[in-house]
Specification:
- The protein is mainly α and 294 residues long.
- The protein has eleven helices and four strands, in the order ββααααββααααααα.
- Strand 3 and strand 4 form a beta hairpin.
- Helix 1 runs parallel beside helix 5 and helix 2 packs across helix 8.
Length: 294
């Protein structure tokens, strides 16, 4: 069966690929949106933290025989702790300064992390095998669905919307938002605002590490995997609206699908379609699709 001259199976395969890419865009842009929306920091090191999560998963299996499921928990925790160290030792001094200082600092951290991993592991990718439980594929009639890619989409969406619910719909989330808008008032109620800020940055970093572990069986683990993705993720955040958590999730998934469909109908534009959408959105709505106009 053909749709607009394209076989249905080919179209559905690209749709699935778009959903997988969109899941990574959503999770990474979610971490960026949380850090910017609650802490007002443009975290350019997010791609490097994503790369670190993938490398930790690979090292856990190669050196310590820790399987995928163990590293799916341990790697994000380790990346989150690393993020906490960054926030406590460096970023905390920049909160009252211009956004540019935080951007430059995190860009420098990115260069250092990539340099360290490149000097140790080189630039060639390291393979990471798919866990046995999720190996193989399922025939769903009109296409063959790889089990691992389906898992990535499901778990990414579960994590993203659970995070949105906690931040937007629970008391913990209201404390976070209030603590960043009026820290003195919140501290008067006995809430440790600096600890909340540190935990928020650590959680955003852990999300990047979690995405890195999910990506390891799909793409080869390399020091450059984060830098290849972070520019697109920043575009996703801008389109969704800087600081909008729901906007980051929905825009990430939507742009992944648009990118996948572009590969079907006009492959030459697939690498730039996200940026074309960004230009159009900024021209029509400078605050982004879900951002708040000043």
């Amino acid at each position: 069966m053909d749709i607009f001259g394209v076989p249905l199976q080919a179209m559905m395969s690209q749709l699935l690929l778009g959903l997988v890419n969109g899941s990574f865009y959503a999770m990474l842009s979610l971490g960026l949106a949380i850090i910017f929306g609650l802490l007002n920091v443009i975290n350019f090191s997010h791609g490097a933290l994503y790369m670190m999560g993938a490398f930790l998963a690979w090292m856990g299996l190669s050196y310590f025989n820790l399987n995928y499921w163990q590293m799916l928990v341990l790697a994000p925790l380790a990346v989150g702790v690393f993020g906490i160290v960054i926030e406590r030792t460096m970023l905390r001094w920049l909160y009252k300064l211009d956004h540019l200082y935080g951007l430059l600092l995190t860009f420098g951290i990115t260069l250092m992390l990539e340099g360290v991993f490149r000097s140790i592991f080189g630039v060639s990718g390291q393979p990471y095998s798919t866990p046995d439980l999720l190996a193989g594929s399922t025939d769903i009639g009109f296409m063959t669905l790889p089990n691992y890619r389906a898992w990535v989409v499901v778990v990414s969406m579960a994590v993203c919307f659970s995070t949105w619910f906690i931040i937007e719909k629970t008391k913990i989330g209201s404390y976070l938002r209030a603590g960043t808008e009026n820290p003195k008032l919140v501290e008067a109620f006995g809430i440790n605002v600096p600890l909340m800020v540190t935990a928020t940055f650590g959680f955003g970093a852990a999300l990047a590490g979690f995405a890195g572990v999910l990506a390891a069986p799909i793409i080869q683990v390399s020091p450059l995997m984060g830098s290849n993705l972070i520019i697109v993720v920043f575009a996703v955040v801008v389109i969704g609206g800087m600081g909008s958590i729901l906007g980051a999730i929905l825009t990430g998934v939507g742009l992944g699908v648009i990118e996948g469909m572009t590969r079907v109908f006009y492959p030459e534009a697939s690498a730039t379609v996200v940026f074309v959408v960004m230009v159009i959105v900024l021209l029509l709505r400078p605050a982004g699709l879900f951002g708040k106009e000043n």
